Amino acid sequence: MRIKNIGLFGKFNDHSVADAVIHVKSFLEKNNLDVYLGHTTSSQIDGMRLENQEKPPNKLLDLSIVVGGDGTMLSVARKLSKFGVPAVGINLGRLGFLTDIPMSNFESAISSILEGNFHIEQRTLLKCKVVKDGKKVLSSMALNDIVLSKGNMGRLIEFSIHVNDQYVTKPRGDGLIISTPTGSTAYALSAGGPIIYPDLPVICFSPICPHTLSNRPILLSETDKIHISNIEPNEFPPNLALDGMMLMELDGSEIIQISRAKRKLKLVKSDRFNYFETLNNKLGWHG
After folding, report:
1. Does residue 175 have a pLDDT over 60?
2. What is 125-262's CATH topology?
3. Do 207 and 191 touch, CB atoms closer than 8 A?
4. Each residue of 147-158: pLDDT tens digit?
């Protein structure tokens, strides 16, 4: 893949990362690459803006570079995945499972990628549709997870889970996390879910603080379809969130339909990348 045009995305409209974004932009331009600033990048940074171009991203960009944390990558991924533009992340955050290139080493890592020393991982995305009174009221995508949770305070909630129209259970607890392999090292991990190798074709649902301790995480095929219904709220409305962003409050009458999205995120990884080394570094598995 010949790389000539690059989309550069900073932390969402945050001028505090301007120095890092400008540094990356300068490095790319010195390597005779055309740089287009993406929708998340602070308007205070000068340069060609992606939104001002006549061509769509898939007709213009060869690669997207995200400078920030995993949250920035999640925002960019949801937008760019439909265009099939590969993305790579330079980490300014804390964990950095998605944005795994450290800022201190970005020139060497990006140079290696520009020389063709990389591979592309196809990361599963989830589609979430909310139906109320027979009408679709929400449709969105998630790279990490879809989370049903109780309100800010109050008692536990109950809800019914069906997989492929087969009844599974009606758990009682703080909610449910439905995650991709990518999201298995995010919120699901803190809820006791398994770490899933990124290219496995599975979906995981993990109960959040279940009242019945035998309610354990379950791995499903990524082709399975999950329905959540009969939500019995407490005195506060339950919340539905995708990739850590609260989308809506629920009154309990909704049906939440979750399935694999048709498209996947193309995530660029250097040929030097080692997933298990990342786990060791990020999770402190130092023996």
Report:
1. yes
2. Tumour Suppressor Smad4 (2.60.200)
3. yes
4. 999 977 778 999
Q: Kindly report the pTM of this predicted structure.
A: 0.91
Residue bearing tokens 């803006």: 49
Q: Which CATH class is domain 5-117+271-283?
A: alpha beta
Residue closest to 276 by CA, chosen among 218, 205, 195: 195
* CA–CA gap between residue 67 and residue 155 (Å, rounded): 40
**The Cα angle at residue 209 between residues 171 and 216, in degrees rounded to 5:** 60
- Which tokens hold the place of 111? 């140079």
- Count Cβ atoms below 10 Å from residue 253 Cβ, excluding itself: 12
Instruction: Find where tokens 């890592």 sit.
Output: 109
Predicted confidence at residue 13, as pLDDT, reads 65
What is the per-residue burial (b if ≥16 Cβ within 10 Å, else e) of 47-78?
eeebeeeeeebeebbebbbbbbbbbbbbbbbb
Catalytic amino acids? 70
